[in-house]
Amino acid sequence: MLLLHGLLDTGASWERVAAGLPEYRVIAPDARGHGRSDHVGPGAAYHFADYVRDLDALVEELGGPVHLVGHSMGGTIASMYAGLVPDQVRSLCLVEGIGPPTEPDAAAVDRFRAHLDQMRAPPQPKVMATIPDAVERLVRVNRGLSPEEAQRIARRNTRKVPSGWIWTWDPLHRTRSPIGFDVDRYLGMLKQIVAPTRVVLCSESWYLGVDRLQERIDACSAERVELPGGHTPHLDQTDALVSVIRSTIQSANSCIE
After folding, report:
1. What are phi and psi of 67, to 5 degrees?
2. Residues 178-212: pLDDT tens digits?
3. Is the pLDDT of residue 116 over 70?
4. CA-CA distance, 84 to 70, in Å (whole number)?
């Protein structure tokens, strides 16, 4: 089972979910430019295609097929892969992640211009004075995270610099992509998915406002599951999410039988 995290997150945030699935070999990698994975080189950037290629290489290394779970950005990556290489995915659980919001075509020029401006002067890491400052930020952003969990994640995913501590994720993630997300092309990928699929949405999340959301869900014939809480149910509603993942896997096993 592969668990894919969201933007500016880390594989370590899946710790509780992995603990709830002891009968599976659970792998929760840090995506490129996140956690302890390498950053891209100078002048490069991060795109969904890069993450999908990384996932393809990992599944090949593991000997696939796999049960696939993705949160936010990780859900989009998982769904793209499941549509492009359907025979390598046994089951698919998309947690608040079935494509990002889109922009009108009229914004395309300004978007690309903003990308160029940001790449000329790439953002620099924000420096925190102490590890407790990093812990406080994690707890504030992820309200379901306990102080103990935040402490482990902060120590794992920060790096000491002369003036304090910085996150290990690449600051380039704060730049805009030059080209907006094409939902129509994405729908074509979703329609190729054959694995039993659940899409998990949360009642208090901003993600419910994503455009053409139900159309995306229908495109991959997914079952829509709603949980209480915000955008991070792997932290806020862990037991309920584990139950959804189990249900998705059971559906896949029934299909095989």
Report:
1. -85, 130
2. 988 999 999 999 999 999 999 999 999 999 999 99
3. yes
4. 16
CA torsion through residues 96, 46, 182, 55, sign: negative
Q: Which residue has the tokens 């990928």?
A: 189
In the chain, what are the domain boundaries?
2-256
Query: Pairing relation of β-strands 158-161 and 164-167?
Result: antiparallel
For the entire predicted model, the pTM comes to 0.94
Q: For the chain, give the longest Cα–Cα distance.
A: 59
Identify the CATH number of the domain defined by range 2-256.
3.40.50.1820
Q: Can you tell me the distance from the alpha carbon of 137 to that of 241, in angstroms, rounded to the nearest whole number? A: 24
Chain segment 92-113, per-residue pLDDT in tens: 999 999 999 998 888 999 999 9
Q: For tokens 């120590």, what's the residue? A: 155
